[in-house]
Specification:
Layout (H helix, E strand, L loop, with lengths): L13 E6 L6 E7 L2 H16 L7 H17 L1 H12 L3 H23 L5 E2 L10 E9 L2 E5 L7 H13 L3 E4 L6 H12 L7 E3 L5 H9 L3 E7 L2 H9 L6 E5 L4 E5 L5 H13 L9 E7 H17 L18 H16 L3 E4 L12 E4 L6 H4 L6 E7 L2 H8 L4 E2 L1 E5 L3 H10 L4 E4 L15 E2 L2 E2 L4 H7 L1 E9 L2
Parallel strand pairs: 5-6, 5-8, 6-7, 8-9, 10-11, 10-16, 11-14, 13-14, 16-17
Antiparallel strand pairs: 1-2, 3-4, 4-20, 9-19, 12-13, 15-18
Helix pairs in contact: 1-7, 2-4, 2-5, 3-4, 4-5, 5-15, 9-10
Length: 474
């Protein structure tokens, strides 16, 4: 059993089994934490923050993170298999995730090296003459991070890495389905010289325990990646003064506008829609195509989807793996069935391949009030809609209470730019799918899709304060 990763002498509250989402085999048992463990972790983290003389220096943090990246680089294969086995993302995509995670740690170092304050323009009035003002960066305080299952290593790096870089003690709660990559990352941080109390990981035994952790008055910053229902609920319960960043989901729209290259769009949309079986918060879900070309496009997309290999995530040849839980397979199946009954044309897929896998599915013209048109499906399903006028596509794309990343395919830069401006989105990819992301990019959900801005440099900035110093001179 994996031991508790918090600084506590209490025995574990219990244990939880971590299983493969593909075949249900047990991968490991992990120790679980109760409210007493949460109190221990918060006490240690808060004491470290309050002892300013013991704060980790910038050179110490740089050395720790640099060593962390070096160790991870020697363990790419092990980290890849671990992430694929517990999360279900295919091996080759999990390897990309691990490489991105290593780069993310390096980005933390880069952010730290370039971390500067600014000069405040005093001396511009009679009252401020003879004064010099400037800011310095300080850690905001104790960070609590609650993470999601779909990128079990890289999401943890995005939340924990900036906390270590900014000098904040951090307590991280990984998703219960995928805690192993998180626990391994914290172990590597400690192997790299980070004192135990500066990064603690725990798997809470229930929602009440997790809520106690998040809402404690000693928490200065709350980082959340997960469902909007849980994220907004937790935000409403934060202690006064606590800041937060929330990353939820979307129902990503993609608009094809003449003139566009169909082969480019097909390849990108197939990747962006079926990557990780659609379990990505900016996964392609709604594709709007000129009416005269829409059914042909859906047919060609279905031909690609049908050829995708669905199977065990550890198999290097697998292109689409399992959904994270069996009940998610049932939910996706019910949503697709509802859409087809209501009039959507099933172009391919539309069936369970096993208890854990669902066939890559393309739907043509599902009704606007169907769940697949309104809600994030988080499964391997792409919907194609025909439109007569571009205004119709824009209106439908913008009609939902969620807004995150989107995409436009068009070879005319003026048309593409005009469409990008009209889309409700924090980012618009032109001639690429909506799920494209680099870890240095800002990553922000709008409306119900989130709060604040993710991305390594932006999270690093969020976890600090600007302390103003004013020096009075003669």
């Amino acid at each position: 059993m994996r031991d508790l990763m918090i600084v506590s002498e209490r025995p574990a509250a219990g244990q939880a089994s971590v299983v493969s989402p593909f075949d249900g085999r047990e991968l490991a048992k992990v120790a679980t934490s109760n409210i007493a463990h949460v109190e221990d972790a918060l006490e240690v983290a808060y004491a470290l923050f309050r002892d300013r003389d013991a704060w980790l220096s910038v050179p110490e943090r740089i050395a720790i993170l640099t060593k962390t990246a070096e160790i991870m680089q020697t363990q790419v294969e092990e980290l890849t298999v671990l992430a694929a086995s517990e999360g279900g993302k295919p091996y080759k995509d999990s390897k990309v995730e691990v490489i991105r995670a290593i780069d993310g740690v390096k980005l933390c170092v880069e952010a730290l090296r370039g971390d500067v304050g600014k000069v405040i323009p005093l001396g511009t009035t009679k009252a401020t003459m003879g004064r010099i003002g400037f800011t310095e960066k300080e850690p905001i305080g104790v960070v609590v991070a609650v993470s999601a299952f779909n990128h079990p290593l890289n999401l943890i790096v995005h939340q924990v890495g900036p906390a270590v870089a900014s000098g904040c003690p951090v307590i991280v709660k990984p998703a219960g389905d995928t805690p192993l990559s998180c626990l391994r990352f914290v172990e590597i941080l400690r192997e790299s010289g980070l004192p135990d109390g500066w990064a603690q990981a725990l798997i809470t035994e229930d929602l009440a325990t997790a809520t106690n952790l998040v809402t404690d008055k000693r928490v200065a910053f709350f980082s959340f990646i997960g469902s909007s229902k849980v994220g907004w609920m937790l935000r409403s319960k934060l202690a006064p003064g606590a800041r937060c960043a929330l990353e939820h989901g979307g129902v990503a729209p993609v608009i094809l506008a003449d003139p566009y290259d169909e082969s480019t769009a097909l390849a990108a949309i197939a990747k962006g829609g079926f990557y990780h079986a659609g379990q990505v918060c900016v996964s392609v879900q709604r594709v709007f195509v000129p009416e005269k070309k829409a059914k042909k496009f859906a047919k060609h997309l279905a031909a690609i989807a049908t050829l995708l290999k669905v199977g065990a995530p550890e198999d290097p040849d697998t292109e689409v793996g399992p959904l994270i839980r069996h009940d998610e397979v049932e939910r996706v199946a019910s949503w697709v069935a509802e859409a087809v009954t209501a009039g959507a044309k099933l172009m391919c897929g539309g069936k369970k391949l096993s208890e854990s896998c669902y066939a890559p599915t393309v739907l043509f013209n599902p009704p606007r009030n169907a769940k697949v048109s309104l809600l994030e499906i988080f499964g391997p399903v792409v919907c194609v809609y025909g439109y007569e006028k571009i205004d119709e596509a824009i209106e439908q794309a913008n009609a939902l209470p969620v807004a995150f990343q989107s995409a436009v395919f068009c070879d005319d830069i003026n048309t593409a730019s005009a469409l990008a401006k009209r889309l409700d989105a924090s980012a618009v990819m032109i001639n690429d799918h909506s799920a494209f992301r680099d870890d240095a990019m800002p990553f922000a959900g709008l409306r119900e899709s989130g709060l604040g801005v993710g991305g390594i440099p932006y999270t690093f900035e969020d976890m600090q304060i600007d302390k103003l110093l004013v020096i009075k001179t003669e």
